[in-house]
Amino acid sequence: MSSATSRYRSAWIASLGSALLAVAACGDDTAPENTDNAEGPAEAAPLYAVSSSIFNASGTTSYIALIDSLEDQTVALEDAVELAGWSSIAAHNGKLFVGGGEAAEITRYEISDEGELGTGERLNFADYGLSSVSFSHNAFVDDTTAHLRLNETSRIIWNHNELSIEGSVDAPEIVRERDGLSVSASNFEGIAVRDDAVLWPYFWHDEDWYQFDQGSQIAFYDKDGAAPELLDVPCPALNIASPDEEGNVYFSGMVDTIAYQLKNKGELTRCVARVNKGERKIADGWPRELEELTDGRPAGRFYYLRDGKGLLTVFHGDSELAEDADPASVFMDDWGLWLVDLDEWKAEPIEDWGFGSSNLFFSRVDNRTFLHKVRSDFSETQIFEIESDGTFTQQLTVPGYSIVLVRVR
User: Fold this and answer.
1) Is CB count within 10 Å lower at the N or C end of the chain?
2) Domain ranges of the chain
C-alpha cells in the first residue's frame, strides 16, 4: 500500500457508515384496541450487517457478515459473504444493497425470516462508463429515488424500488477548479438527506490530497437531481455530517488538512458549521473554530453525539514535521478523542480512550453511536458504543478494515 493511499485511506476508502443518518418512523403512540385477543404476526428479530475489507499484496477482499446483536462479540469472517475487490454496502427499507467492487453493478438482497440473503437482483451502470459502483457516493433520497455520484459534479438518478435508471444530471454551477486545486464531492460521511433536499458538500484539494482550500460549499440537491443551490462555508474539506435531535446538521472537515500545515507551516482554520432544520444558510453563531477547544492542538473530525455533546478527534503528536518526514506519519497513532460541550463551547480529553490512528469512523444505529477504531495497519477494527458523558464500551471486534455498520431490519 503506497504512502499516498495510506494517508488518505481515512477519508476516501469507504462504504456506508456513519456517516449513516438514522431515519426514525413516527406515528400515533396510542395502541389500537384489541377486540379479538388474536395475536398478530411476530415481528422479525433485528438483523445487522457489518462489512470489512482485507488488504494484501494480491489485492482487496471484502466480507459482509450478518449479526443479530450489537453486543459484545467477535465477528467471524469465515461465515461471512466473501466478495472480490472493494465492495460496499448500504441498507434501506429492509433491504441490503451491495456495490460491486469489480463490476459496475449493484445487487439488492431481500432478507429471509431466517436472516439469510437470497440470490439478489442486479442493476448495471456500465452504460455510464463505470467499472465499479460504490455506496460511498450514494444517497437514498426517499422511498423510490437515489442519487449516485457519476463524477464529482454529476449524479445518476436511479430507482431503488424498481431497480431502474432514470438518467444523469450535471451541476455546472460547481466550480471544477479553484486556485489550481481540483473539486471533490464528499463521500457518504458528509451527505445529509432532508425532506426538502440532499445536502452534499464539495471542497478543493491538490492531486495528492495534501493541500486544501480554506473554503467548501454545500450543494442542496432536489429529488430529481436538478442544479443545486450552493452555500459557501469558510471551513476546509467538509466531509463529516451529523444531525442533532432537532434535525440541525453539523458539517466538519477531514483530518487530511493537517499534514500540510504541520510540515509546510501552512495556515488553515478548521471549523464546524451548522445548518438548521429547514434552512439553507449557516446558522447564527456558526461556524466555530475547533482549535479554540484544544489549546491549539490540531483538530480532526467533529461528530454530534447527543444531548448537546459532540466528539472531536485531536492530534497529540509533534506540532510540526521535519522536512524529511513522511506526511503519512501524522495519521498513525497520536490521535485522541475529546468530548465537546456545545452549549459551553469547551472540550476535554476522554482520558480512558487513549491514542490511536486517525482512522476513526462513526456509525449511528438504533439511536446508538458507535466508534470504529481501525488499527494503523488496517488488520483489525474495534467498534465501541459511546454515551453522551464520554463513557464507552467495546461491543464488536472485526478482522480487517471495518467502517460500515447498518441495521438491515
Assistant:
1) N
2) 3-19+46-407
pLDDT recorded at residue 366: 95
Q: What is the pLDDT of residue 275?
A: 98
Task: Summarize pLDDT for 348-379 with one digit per residue, the tens.
Answer: 999 999 999 999 999 999 999 999 999 989 99
120: number of Cβ within 10 Å? 14
**Integer Cα distance of 25 and 16 in angstroms:** 21
Neighbours of 308 (CB within 10 A): 14
Give residue 3's Cα distance to chain centre: 22
**Residue showing cell 459496475:** 104
Contact 70, 372 (CB under 8 A): no
Cβ distance 65 to 75 under 8 Å?
yes
Longest dimension (CA), the chain: 78
CATH superfamily of 3-19+46-407: YVTN repeat-like/Quinoprotein amine dehydrogenase (2.130.10.10)
Cell numbers for 261, please give them: 500545515
pLDDT, tens digit, for every residue of 10-32? 333 333 333 333 333 333 333 33
- Name the percent of the chain lying above pLDDT 90: 74
- Closest alpha carbon to 192 in 201, 179, 183: 201
Please tell me the distance from the alpha carbon of residue 284 to that of residue 336, in angstroms, as a whole number. 29
Backbone φ, ψ for residue 163 (5° rounding): 50, 60
